[in-house]
Amino acid sequence: MKSAQTDESPFLRRFRHMAAPFLWALIAALMIRTFVFQPFSIPSSSMLPTLLVGDHLFVAKYAYGYSRYALPSFFYRLAPSGRIFASLPNRGDVIVFRLPADDSVDYIKRVIGLPGDRVQMLGGILHINGVAARRERIAGASRYRERLPDGAAYEILDVRPNSAGDTTRLFLVPENHLFVMGDNRDNSVDSRVQSAVGFIPAANIVGRASRIYISVGPKARWLAPWGWPSAIRWRRSGQRIHGG
Question: Does 61 qualify as catalytic in the annotation?
Answer without folding.
Answer: no
